[in-house]
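Recall from the previous chapter that SMILES is a line notation for molecules. Here it describes coenzyme A.
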Amino acid sequence: MRVGIRRARASDIATLDALAQRAVAEIGRAFYSRRQIVRAVNRMASVDSRLIADGSLYVAELGDTIVGCIGWTPGGSLLPARAGLVEEDLTAEPGSAVLRSLFVEPAHAGRGVARSLFRRCKSDAAKAGFRRMEALASAAAKGPCRRFGFARSRAVRLRFDDGLELVSYHMTLDL
Ligand SMILES: CC(C)(COP(=O)(O)OP(=O)(O)OC[C@H]1O[C@@H](n2cnc3c(N)ncnc32)[C@H](O)[C@@H]1OP(=O)(O)O)[C@@H](O)C(=O)NCCC(=O)NCCS
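With both inputs in hand, we obtain:
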């Protein structure tokens, strides 16, 4: 499948948030409980629109249809913003770019969309001078990230204020 990759525009955000919710709800349910998925959809399934101004949020298109997205930031917290976690902060090492907002439309999953998105993301982060990338990968993204060359470093228990937990994986890749 040949997908085009372009930088995201502000007008894409509503489409990307809806896509992210479908991705977490439909793909994530093979990896998490129903309660965990409801929480993840409500608190974590959105794209970080601040990345648009930096030109570091990308969409994958098949014809005119958006089928996925990915982003990166120069460092920062690995934890999703505004998720309501009671976790202490998990900040990337100095010099690391952070992979963010990786979601693929369920109907187009398993066909290399994430790989195409990641190739562009990795290339641009390397061109910007980063030599390492870190990610807090969901259980659904752990396998793909391993295939992209990330090493699994450790499982992180994300804990919400009502005690609900959700395991993610802190992974690193030399660029
Ligand atoms: C994670 C996600 C983005 C992957 O998207 P995708 O387009 O289906 O991934 P691809 O088809 O590009 O697959 C990438 C690689 O991972 C491999 N892969 C896919 N699922 C895998 C799994 N469960 N275990 C191991 N490897 C897996 C593929 O075989 C492929 O490897 P290859 O290119 O070497 O053949 C998608 O499943 C998704 O949106 N999940 C729900 C949202 C989510 O959890 N996002 C991550 C937040 S951190």
